[in-house]
Amino acid sequence: MDENKNGLSTRCVHAGELPDAHGSPHTPLYTSTTFKFPSTADLLDVVDGHRPGSLYTRYGLNPTVQSLEAKLAALENAEAALAFSSGMGAEAALFLTHGRRGVICIGDAYGGTLELLADQLPQLGIRTTLLLGNELERLDGLLADGYGLVFLETPTNPVLEIIDLRVLAQKVHAHGALLAVDNTFASPVNQQPLALGADVVVHSATKYLGGHSDLTAGALMGRAELIGPVFNWRKNLGTTPAPEICNLLARSIRSLTVRVRQQNASAQRIAEAMARHPRVKRVLYPGLANHPGHAVATGQMSGYGGMLTIELDGDTAAATAVADRLKLFAIAPSLGGVESLVTQPVTTTHHGLTEQERTRRGISGAMLRLSVGLEDVEDLIADLQQALR
Ligand code: PLP
Questions:
Q1: For FRET with 199, which of 81, 318, 349, 367 sits at 20 to 30 Å CA-CA?
Q2: Is the separation of the CB atoms in 60 and 66 below 8 Å?
Q3: How far is CA 305 from CA 50, 103, 335, in A?
Q4: Going from the N-terminus, what domains does the chain have, and what CATH number goes with each?
Q5: Residue 87 CA, ligand 1 centroid: distance in Å
Q6: In what order do the strands lie in the sheet with 307-312?
Q7: Does residue 206 contact residue 216 with C-beta atoms inside 8 Å?
Q8: DSSP state letter for 49
C-alpha cells in the first residue's frame, strides 16, 4: 500500500505504524535507551548506515521515535521528517543547518522564534532580518545579497495575516534560497505548504498535533536531502523527544483531522457571532469574507483554522475585564488543544514589545486571541456573550 496516496485521515491513523508480534494495532512504546545486536558486524551495519535499525534513543534510532517520524512525514506528504523535543528545538536545528547564510523572517512570528532570530543567532555570526508582511518589497534585495533561508508563519499570530505561499516560493527559489513555513497555526489539515512550494515545514507539535495540552514536541518535514543534514544537529544538541512523548503524540495524531475540522467549524461560527456583536470592533479570522487575506486563504488553505482574534470597542483594561470574566475560555498561552483558551496578546505573546512596535505590527491592547477547543460551540458563544455583556 502506498501510504501517501491515502487521504489525510487514513494517513493519520495508519501511516508509520509498525507491526507487532502480539497483534497491537499501533506501534508499541519502546522506552529502551539502547538496542542490542547479535554481533559486532551487525552493530557496525547500523552504525555505518548500511541498513536501517534501532541503536540509541537520543539519535532518534528507536522504533517508537521512527514510527512517529514516518507518520509526521505522511501528514505533510513529505519524503522525510524529524521529531524534536519542542517546536523551538525544531526551529533551532533548522536555522543552524540551513540558515547559516542568513535568515529572513516574514510577518509576525512566535515570540521565541523572534528572540532566537533577533538576539541569539546574530551572537553566532548568523545574520537575520525581520520583515513585516507589508515590507516585501525589500525581499528581492536581501535575497540577492545571499540570504539562504526565508521563514514565516501563515496565518500569523495574532492578527491572522495570510501570506501567499505560491508567490513567495517562486521569489525565494528564483534566488536559490529555501522557504520554510511554520505550519503550527493551520495544521496539516488546513494547509499543505510543501504542495504550495515550500521546502521545509516546521511544527510546534505541542499545539494541534498533540492537541490535548499535555505534551511538548516539534517536527521538521521536507525532502530527504534537506532533512538528512539536520539529523546530526539534533543528535548532538540532544533535542530528540523521549519515546514516551512520541507514543503520546502518535496517539493524538490519529484523531487530528476530526479535531481540527470541528475546531474550524466552531471558529467560523464564533467569528460570525462576534462580528455581529456591538461591543466588538473587529474580528480577525480568514474565514470571514471581509478579512484582507480571505481570497488568498481560500486559494491555499482547505480550512480557515481554529484561531481567531477579536478586537473590542474599548481599551486594554476592557479586554482584560472580558478575559477575566470568561468561564469556559481559560486564560493561558498556547493553542490547539481540546479546551478553549484566551490570551490578550499585549500581556503574553507580544508583552515584551514597545507600544510603537506593537502599533507597527497592528496589535492593540483591546485584542483577545481565541484558541477554539472542542466544547459545544453554543456554550462557547454564550460564554463570550456573558463576558462581553
Ligand atoms: N511556532 C508557533 C507558531 C508557536 O505558537 C510556538 C509556541 O507557542 C512555537 C513555534 C514554539 O513551540 P514550542 O513551545 O513547542 O517550542
A1: 349
A2: yes
A3: 43, 27, 11
A4: 3-30+62-253 (3.40.640.10), 256-388 (3.90.1150.10)
A5: 5
A6: 280-284, 307-312, 367-371, 341-343, 330-331
A7: yes
A8: T
pTM above 0.90, yes or no: yes
Output the CA 40–ligand 1 centroid distance in Å.
42
* Nearest CA among 249, 225, 206 for reference residue 337: 206
Would you give per-residue pLDDT tens digits along the chain (389 residues)? 566 689 999 999 999 999 889 999 999 999 999 999 999 999 999 999 999 999 999 999 999 999 999 999 999 999 999 999 999 999 999 999 999 999 999 999 998 999 999 999 999 999 999 999 889 999 999 999 999 999 999 999 999 999 999 999 999 999 999 999 999 999 999 999 999 999 999 999 999 999 999 999 999 999 999 999 999 999 999 999 999 999 999 999 999 999 999 999 999 999 999 999 999 999 999 999 999 999 999 999 999 999 999 999 999 999 999 999 999 999 999 999 999 999 999 988 788 788 888 888 889 999 999 999 999 999 999 999 999 99
- From CA 163, how far away is CA 140, in angstroms rounded? 16
Q: Which three cell numbers stand for residue 194?
A: 510543501
Give CA separation, 265 vs 98, 116, 280, 297, 350, in Å.
37, 34, 20, 16, 27
Contact 179, 226 (CB under 8 A): no
Atom 5 in ligand 1: residue holding the nearest Cα: 110
Ligand 1 atom closest to Cα of residue 217: 15
Please give the distance, rounded to the nearest whole angstrom, from the Cα atom of residue 306 to the centre of ligand 1.
16
Sheet with 149-153, edge to edge strand ranges: 80-84, 218-222, 200-204, 178-182, 149-153, 103-106, 128-131
Nearest CA to ligand 1 atom 15: 87
Contacts from 123-129 at CB under 8 Å and sequence distance 24+? 126/95, 126/99, 126/100, 126/102, 127/102, 127/103, 128/99, 128/102, 128/103, 128/104, 129/102, 129/103, 129/104, 129/105
